[in-house]
Amino acid sequence: MHKYKLIIEYDGKDFIGWQRQDNGVSIQSSIEKAVKKFSNEKVTVFGAGRTDSGVHAKGQVAHFELINNLPLDSIRDGINQHLRPLPIAILSAEYVDKDFHARFSAKQRVYEYHIISRRSPLTFQKNQAWVVHKKLNINKMIEAAYYFEGKHDFNGFRSINCQSISSIKTIDKCQVKYENEFIKVEIAAKSFLHSQVRIIVGTLVEVGKEKINSLNIRNIIESKDRTKAGITAPANGLYLTKVKY
Predict the structure, then answer these.
(1) DSSP line for 61-102
(2) Separation between Cα atoms, residue 135 and residue 3, nearest integer Å
(3) Where are the domains of the chain?
(4) Each residue's pLDDT tens digit, 179-236
(5) Which of 50, 76, 183, 200 is the most interior residue, by most CB within 10 Å?
(6) Among residues 115, 45, 80, 62, which one has the least CA distance to residue 243?
(7) Three-state secondary structure call for residue 3
(8) Cα separation of the two ends of the chain
(9) Rg of the chain's alpha carbons, rounded to an integer?
């Protein structure tokens, strides 16, 4: 068997998420069908991150195995040909050794969340960012983001559907950057709880609206109480940008 690693880009708005399910079209199943059409081999594609419905990716990583040893350009182009017209693109393919696993070998996952703060509705960026129709206090958001970094019990920052046994996670990076009306939140960690990034972003926006004091973030984390954190930000502003190994 020959193992291949893929770097994948996709617009998640029309999918039920990465993971294969019976109730709609997923990214995983779409790529598996494309590989089958291209190679005549049935495969299972394993992804580094199980992005939710509506979440996008600029650098999702996945792997699969084939009996045949095929050129990498043929892997990339062949899969892309059979993915059309779906908004999924294989950016690159490479050979990896038998011990590589897209999910379990990952050392860090990097997400970014896009916010646009303006009164007018979105046109070109609709379904690509969260529009907040209020001026946000960016300096307070920058200050609040710092408190999420480090090892904490994030029980107050996960959805009721989270199946993780432990809610203790280590955030390597949480930063807010901005240029005019465009705000980007960058968050990096080895792994995340279900909806953790979106709840952190929702909390930062509540800080920006001055509904939550930035100095209270540490107390909210320590409370482990979901009701004290902010809202869950919409899925359409979230992007999986990079997976590090």
Answers:
(1) EEEEEESS---HHHHHHHHHHHHTTSSEEEEEEEEE-TT--T
(2) 49
(3) 2-96, 108-244
(4) 999 999 999 999 999 999 999 999 999 999 999 999 999 999 999 999 999 999 999 9
(5) 200
(6) 62
(7) strand
(8) 22
(9) 19
pLDDT tens digits along 50-60? 999 999 999 99
Peptide bond into 85 cis (omega under 30): yes
Write down the pTM of the prediction.
0.94
Q: Catalytic pick from 11, 52, 153, 172?
A: 52
Find residue 132's DSSP bridge partners.
Answer: 117
14 is catalytic: no
| Answer CATH for 108-244 from 3.30.70.660, 3.40.640.10, 3.40.50.300, 3.30.200.20 | 3.30.70.660
Residue 234 is classified by DSSP as P
Q: Work out whether strand 46-47 and strand 108-117 pair parallel, antiparallel, or are unpaired.
A: unpaired
Give domain 2-96's CATH architecture.
2-Layer Sandwich (3.30)
